[in-house]
Amino acid sequence: MKSLIENSCLKLEKVRESIAEVIVGQEPLVDRLLLALLCDGHVLIEGVPGVAKTLVITTLAQSMKANFSRVQFTPDLLPSDLVGSLVYDPREHTFTAEKGPVFANLLLADEINRAPAKVQSALLESMQEKQVTLGKETYRLPHPFLVLATQNPIEQEGTYTLPEAQVDRFMFKLKVGYPSMEDEHQIMRRMARSAPKTSVEPVIDLKDILETRGLLDKVFIDEKVEKYILRLVDATRNPSAYGIDISRYLRFGASPRATIFLSLAARGLAMLNQREFAVPQDIKDVAGDVLRHRMALSYRAEAEGLTSDDLIEKILNTVPIMEE
């Protein structure tokens, strides 16, 4: 078992090295994208313009032998622009399904919060059911299928707030900040050229990814660790029961998907660290990315300048790992 995990990690390490040929820094983002790929989870990436959100995703797609589509979301985007439509053939008097860009293994939804509700609704079915309905027919999406979405937290004009039901479908919400001065120096040297390198060759195929995913179920997670996950999620709903004075800052806590994704992500992180078992520290390491978009803050929290990350930190520092 351990040798299988080590071999699988070596393949994923090749992807990481391939991405590093183009991307400087952003190791935490790359690691989480690989973890999402391993756990079959969608990812929402938030960051200011110019921090390589889109470039990281496109480079990841290039490093894989997989189908990749990019859709630039805009306020005038239609559902048919994303999922496809039925095209009428006047000679045969029949309708033919013209599949849209969502029929890919990796879908980059760039500036996802710029699209209106009908487009988000069409994307929601794809994310949750891994299928698309065109007319009276339902078509399965390719396997694997991941939505990697980006959004800009600064601009508000021409944007739409994503529905809570859709946000909850994302396994991770990742925040991307500015690079360090040293990394930015390397970015300047590498990209300030007439023809900078922006592409890589594939180093892994879908068969390898699916085989690696199959090992995830064999990673052991103790019942005590599972109960720690349950307590963390419950603390987002009933913080006072754990002596955490944050109830006034929360409108509602995390959904059961948080429990599922914390378990998956902890085992996936254990695999990436070449371990056959998950430990509580794995859960702490992924808790922020899994929980931050599943906790709805009250106006009071916003007025006091608190973020969901601040509340998650209090929960992690208070909820005991072992039951007392």
Please characterize this protein's 3D structure.
This protein has 324 residues and is of the alpha/beta class. The protein folds into two domains: 2-192 and 202-212, P-loop containing nucleotide triphosphate hydrolases (Rossmann fold); 219-318, Magnesium chelatase subunit I, C-Terminal domain (Helicase, Ruva Protein, domain 3), CATH 1.10.8. The chain contains 13 helices and 13 strands. The strands form five sheets. Strands 3-6-9-1-10 form a five-stranded parallel beta sheet. Strands 2-11 form a two-stranded parallel ribbon. Strands 4-5 form a two-stranded antiparallel sheet. Strand 4 (84-89) and strand 5 (94-99) form a beta hairpin. Helix 2 (27-39) packs across helix 10 and helix 10 (256-272) packs across helix 11 (280-291). The longest helix is centred in the N-terminal third of the chain and has 19 residues, at 2-20. The mean pLDDT is 87.
Portion of residues in beta strands equals 15-25%
Taken together, the total number of domains comes to 2
Mean of pLDDT: 87
- How many helical stretches? 13
How would the global form be characterised? globular
State the helical fraction.
40-55%
Indicate the CATH class of the largest domain: Alpha Beta
